[in-house]
Every structure is written in structure tokens, then in C-alpha cells.
Write a structure and sequence with these properties.
This protein has 11 helices and 9 strands. The protein has 250 residues and is of the alpha/beta class.
Length: 250
């Protein structure tokens, strides 16, 4: 995870502008359901960033949530939102909490940033209680293959297929780490975004997928989005949240 520190430090102040269309309330409900959370549950938000998903779980399930993230600037933005979400600077390979404590480890769009995924999976298993769950909120290769954003920015598609773990890879990481069961839940949540929103996300690289893009590829995609706006006015672009929740149960 530390490899992403410079990028997330740079975009931290604008990061949430790239996440306004994500339905964190819905995903918090799925976490509550799949991990059987209640007001006494303990949750660690792995790679918590500015806290969007952890705060959603707090609000919806009433669980006690703590977090960690490698980016000090992302944590600074979290602390500006609330002081009721304890979070420290660390990485997934070294979860900074004692073992056999948590009911859930939740990681939203984090695993493709983790350097040593095998060690991170072992750490997730270590900190969970018996019967606890680790949920990787990720994008499968099939879902990546169909994402609308790559119609405008095809150059970055392969780089994302290279860094996102496949379902089979997740199963290997979790099984080898000691999880008893693994489950896979694919989702397609209808979502619409304006061309202006997508242009801002791309130009400011608010989604990490834009880090490897060349200036030529960026300019071409932005030009196509501006052409879309000229052709379609304020009609939004359908860009569904295609997400997979990969669950490991200890």
C-alpha cells in the first residue's frame, strides 16, 4: 500500500469530489448483512482514506470502526470530517492492531494497491475473531472489461487488469492465509455521472487508475467527453458501479 502514498497525498484535498457518486450507504448495508454486524461489532477499515466507507458502516450498522491508511494527508482529511473515527498511519502488511479482536476487516478499492497481498491476507486473518469476515470491495476482471470509463480512456484498461487481483487470486490469498470459507458476490449498481464530473476526475487523477495515463491519452479522452457534452447536453453518462465483494470467513 505504501507505493500509493505520493499519489494519495497529492489528491487528498479533492479526493472526495471523485467519490460523490458512490453509494456508500448501500455498501455499508451489504457489509452489515454479510458480516452480521450490530452495535457491538468491531470493524477495521483497511486503507480507510478519508473515511467514506468506514463512516458509512458506523452510521448504518452502529458498529465501532477504526481504520488505518498509509497516506498522512488522507488521514488529515478524515480528521477534518470527524474525531469519532480513530485512524492511524500504517499499511495492510502490518495491521496495527492486536489479534482475534475484530468482527470485520473492510477494504474498499484497496487490494490493488497492496504490495504483498499474501502477507496482507494473513494480517486480515490474524486480527479477526473466529467467525469474523474480511470483505474486499473490488472490481473483477470481467467487470473491468466492461467499464464505460475505458471507452473514453482505453489506454489505462490493461494497467488496471494488471493490478486488480482476479477472483482466483483472492481465493488463493485468503485460503492460504487461513480463512475457512470464501464467497464471491458480484454487483451492478446503476449509476450516472455527468461528463464534467468525469473530466474533473480524469484531469485531477482523482481515481488512481489515471496515474499511468499519458498526456496524449488523457487529452484524447477529455476531448471525447467534451464532444459527448456538445452532442448530448446535460444528459449524464451511465457508468454503473460494477463491484465484487470477495468475502473470507475465519
Amino acid at each position: 500500500m505504501a507505493i500509493s502514498n505520493p499519489h494519495f497525498n497529492k489528491v487528498s484535498k479533492d479526493y472526495d469530489r471523485g467519490r460523490v457518486s458512490e453509494d456508500t450507504w448501500f455498501w455499508a448495508g451489504e457489509a452489515e448483512r454479510l458480516a452480521h454486524l450490530d452495535m457491538g461489532s468491531l470493524v477495521v477499515d483497511m486503507g480507510c482514506g478519508t473515511g467514506n466507507y468506514g463512516l458509512g458502516i458506523q452510521a448504518r450498522a452502529g458498529a465501532n470502526v477504526v481504520g488505518f491508511d498509509p497516506s498522512v494527508e488522507m488521514l488529515r482529511q478524515l480528521r477534518e470530517k470527524t474525531l469519532n473515527f480513530p485512524a492511524v498511519q500504517s499499511v495492510a502488511e502490518h495491521i496495527p492492531f492486536r489479534g482475534d479482536v475484530f468482527d470485520l476487516v473492510y477494504a474498499a478499492q484497496v487490494w490493488h494497491h497492496v504490495v504483498n497481498k499474501e502477507k496482507a491476507a494473513r494480517e486480515c486473518c490474524r486480527v479477526l475473531k473466529r467467525g469474523g469476515a474480511s470483505i474486499a470491495h473490488t472490481i473483477s476482471h470481467a467487470q473491468l472489461d466492461s467499464k464505460v470509463v475505458f471507452k473514453f480512456f482505453p489506454e489505462i484498461k490493461q494497467s488496471q487488469l494488471d493490478v486488480y487481483p482476479s477472483d482466483e487470486a483472492f481465493q488463493t490469498y485468503f485460503k492460504d492465509a487461513g480463512f475457512r470459507l470464501t464467497e464471491v458476490y458480484p454487483y451492478n449498481v446503476e449509476r450516472y455521472q455527468s461528463s464534467d464530473e468525469l473530466i474533473e476526475i480524469a484531469e485531477k487523477k482523482l481515481w488512481s487508475m489515471f496515474r499511468p495515463i499519458t498526456q496524449t491519452g488523457l487529452d484524447r479522452g477529455v476531448a471525447e467527453l467534451r464532444q459527448w457534452k456538445r452532442d448530448h447536453g446535460d444528459e449524464p453518462i451511465r457508468n454503473d458501479e460494477t463491484i465484487t465483494l470477495f468475502v473470507g470467513r475465519k
